[in-house]
Design goal:
Layout lengths: L4 E3 L2 E6 L1 H6 E11 L3 H8 L9 E5 L2 E5 L20 E4 L2 H13 L2 E11 L2 E11 L2 H29 L1
Antiparallel strand pairs: 1-2, 2-7, 3-6, 3-8, 4-5, 5-6, 7-8
Family: Belongs to the SmpB family.
Subcellular location: Cytoplasm
GO cellular component, one term: cytosol
Length: 162
Amino acid sequence: MGKKKKKHGSNLIASNRKARHDYTILDTYEAGIVLVGTEIKSLREGKASLVEAFATIDNGEVWLRNLHIPEYSMGSWTNHSPRRHRKLLLHRGEIDSLEGKVRDGNKTLVPLSLYLKDGRVKVELGLAQGKQDWDKRQSIKRRTEEREIVREMGRKIKGINA
């Protein structure tokens, strides 16, 4: 994603738009991410992909897997591996709570967006439950109906003012 968009006063680097289509987001968390020097330089250029990314909890630590940060173009032998596992920084209470929720049911941790906030890279992590095909169709139908209602209300208001 080449463009940077504003998100709550932050620079959006990448977003996972498909996550909200494939999952029902139950709760969101903001987490820091441990990066090496060439990764942050590549992210500041606006290069990252969250398409296949997911988070796991191993030994009381949260890890972001399959996040693709391409190698820094100006880097040398110090370049990073594009798909390495990256540690997420959350409070102990949040990690314990997430671990219980993920272990109890069919829930997963999905990164929703990656952005710069006060010079630091943050990940918006969603506690998500997978949608079935009929759930996805229902969501699309509901969005379409809401769009139609707004469109009709606009026509009625213009008809009254005209």
